[in-house]
């Protein structure tokens, strides 16, 4: 019997997705460049409907047509190497799916190249890590719609299911749309994490709350409007003690250098390329960068003085204010993320369905959260909504929580605790709601030194001021 679908790449993600697909009643062909990995999978899962191959030729032959092949290898050169090996063996109408964390520019180029040979190419964002891959990820596939239809039944079966039973997968759009959406998802994830980390830092270092109590605070927050995977795991993390036996909280033993694999940075890079303000996510990328300068920070901490201001607060009230500030920051971050998606949809001609994106993030992925339903609702009410903040639910959050956000940022700033994403959130909110920004002076400066011209508020046209003429 031929396999219904093939998976290339038997590292953790490919293996788990293959097992997930198999568990839904499909026969899965598997292949990995290094044979041992395939052998290990077969040894560990000999009872499963898996068809192993040890050459690309045999692998392609093992699949029913039109072939559906999911590539789960290291993103970049490895993806091209796999495609180049497969290509001569494929027939027109076959579907290749790249589920790696691929840059959307690469996906657009591959889609165009393969399309010329009649091969369909889907770039699919996969979120949820290795457990998600096994039990139900959130999937963001982009490419030819007709190709999506050929794989949709399988993807819908393996994807996570939201509370209303809907699968966390949908056709995102042509060529690189799926990988783009995954990239912005990862950017949003960076923002969420940094906002949480800043909240933790304030409560710990300003309010002096110990880790056990903090764990309970996050667990409590998770019962309300902040309910989400990241708040949930934060509550759990803070309750965990050293696994090597010192008895200390594990967070206190983890080195404060924030690593990254690049997707958050890509998201910021494209926001810059598109000219869309996405400061909360970008500040979270910078926060990781500055954290990596550990040696410099340690040296600077001995030289650069602290502020000499003092603050006064009620601990219980501060906890609630930080919760409100965190939610306010989250709303600004998502408003920016969705604004980026709107710009991208126009620039790359993708016709993204914003409400649907929030819908497929409700389960399976790292940013899964109760409040995504509010985003779906907002775009369902008004598919052309320019900015989430203009939806009544989000306007109301801004109204209710902005003062807490301001107080928390002021307090942290007074005592010298860095809150880059919380401050960026407030700056964005204030810029966005300001009718007249000081860009009038900026335009005058540009015109002064570079004759860049400006527009006037009282008449149409383009003007240049005679700056160098005596008045
Ligand atoms: P890795 O990213 O560690 O990649 C290892 C796999 O790539 C192995 O199967 C390896 O084969 C294969 N490979 C590497 N170079 C080549 C090459 N030149 N030719 C053919 N195959 C090659 O595996 P993961 O399972 O962690 O991730 C797979 C993909 O999924 C990546 O793109 C990753 O970014 C993405 N992803 C990962 C998530 C995670 O949580 N880990 C979450 C979502 C997406 P060999 O055994 O022969 O070396």
Automatic annotation (TrEMBL):
Enzyme kind, highest EC tier: oxidoreductase
Catalysed reaction, written as an equation: 6-phospho-D-gluconate + NADP(+) = D-ribulose 5-phosphate + CO2 + NADPH
A single GO molecular function term of this UniProt record: phosphogluconate dehydrogenase (decarboxylating) activity
Top-level taxon in the UniProt lineage: Bacteria
Gene3D superfamilies registered for this protein in UniProt: 6-Phosphogluconate Dehydrogenase, domain 3 (1.20.5.320), N-(1-d-carboxylethyl)-l-norvaline Dehydrogenase, domain 2 (1.10.1040.10), NAD(P)-binding Rossmann-like Domain (3.40.50.720)
Pathway annotation: Carbohydrate degradation; pentose phosphate pathway; D-ribulose 5-phosphate from D-glucose 6-phosphate (oxidative stage): step 3/3
UniProt keyword annotation of NADP present: yes
UniProt keyword Cell membrane, yes or no: no
Alphabetic keyword roster: Gluconate utilization, NADP, Oxidoreductase, Pentose shunt
Assembly and binders: Homodimer.
Function, in words: Catalyzes the oxidative decarboxylation of 6-phosphogluconate to ribulose 5-phosphate and CO(2), with concomitant reduction of NADP to NADPH.
Assigned protein family: Belongs to the 6-phosphogluconate dehydrogenase family.
UniProt protein name: 6-phosphogluconate dehydrogenase, decarboxylating
Organism annotation: Nicoliella lavandulae
Lineage: Bacteria, Bacillati, Bacillota, Bacilli, Lactobacillales
């Amino acid at each position: 019997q031929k396999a219904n679908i093939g998976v290339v790449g038997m590292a953790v993600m490919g293996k788990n997705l293959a097992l997930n697909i198999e568990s839904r009643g499909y026969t899965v062909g598997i292949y990995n460049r290094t044979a041992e990995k395939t052998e290990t999978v077969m040894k560990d899962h000999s009872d499963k409907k898996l068809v192993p191959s040890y050459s690309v030729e045999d692998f392609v032959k093992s699949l029913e047509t039109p072939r559906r092949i999911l590539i789960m290898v290291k993103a970049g050169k490895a993806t091209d190497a796999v495609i180049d090996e497969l290509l001569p063996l494929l027939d027109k109408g076959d579907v290749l799916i790249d589920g790696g964390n691929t840059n959307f520019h690469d996906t657009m180029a591959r889609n165009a190249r393969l399309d010329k040979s009649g091969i369909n190419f889907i770039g699919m964002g996969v979120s949820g890590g290795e457990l998600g891959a096994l039990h139900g990820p959130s999937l963001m596939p982009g490419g030819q719609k007709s190709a999506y239809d050929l794989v949709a039944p399988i993807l819908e079966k393996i994807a996570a299911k939201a509370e209303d039973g809907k699968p966390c997968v949908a056709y995102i759009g042509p060529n690189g749309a799926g990988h783009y959406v995954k990239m912005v998802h990862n950017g949003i994830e960076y923002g969420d994490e940094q906002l949480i980390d800043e909240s933790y830092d304030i409560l710990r270092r300003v309010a002096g709350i110990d880790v056990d109590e903090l764990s309970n605070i996050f667990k409590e927050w998770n019962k309300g409007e902040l309910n989400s995977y990241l708040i949930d795991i934060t509550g759990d993390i803070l309750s965990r003690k050293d696994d090597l036996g010192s008895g200390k909280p594990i967070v206190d033993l983890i080195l404060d250098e924030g690593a990254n694999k690049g997707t958050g940075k890509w998201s910021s890079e494209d926001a810059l390329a598109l000219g869309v303000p996405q400061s909360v996510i970008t500040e979270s990328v910078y926060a990781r960068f500055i954290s990596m300068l550990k040696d410099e920070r340690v040296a600077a901490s001995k030289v650069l003085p602290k502020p000499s201001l003092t603050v006064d607060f009620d601990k219980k009230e501060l906890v609630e204010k930080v919760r409100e500030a965190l939610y306010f920051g989250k709303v600004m971050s998502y408003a920016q993320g969705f604004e980026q998606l709107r710009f991208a949809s126009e620039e790359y001609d993708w016709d993204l369905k914003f409400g649907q994106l929030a819908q497929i993030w409700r389960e399976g992925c790292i940013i899964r959260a109760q409040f995504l339903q509010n985003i779906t609702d907002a775009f369902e009410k008004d598919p052309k909504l320019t900015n989430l903040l203009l939806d009544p639910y989000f306007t109301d959050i801004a109204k209710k929580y902005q003062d807490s956000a301001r107080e928390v940022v002021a307090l942290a700033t007074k005592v010298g605790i860095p809150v880059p994403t919380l401050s960026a959130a407030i700056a964005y909110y204030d810029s966005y709601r300001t009718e007249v920004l000081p860009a009038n002076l900026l335009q005058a400066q540009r015109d002064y030194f570079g004759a860049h011209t400006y527009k006037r508020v009282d008449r149409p046209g383009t003007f240049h001021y005679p700056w160098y003429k005596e008045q």
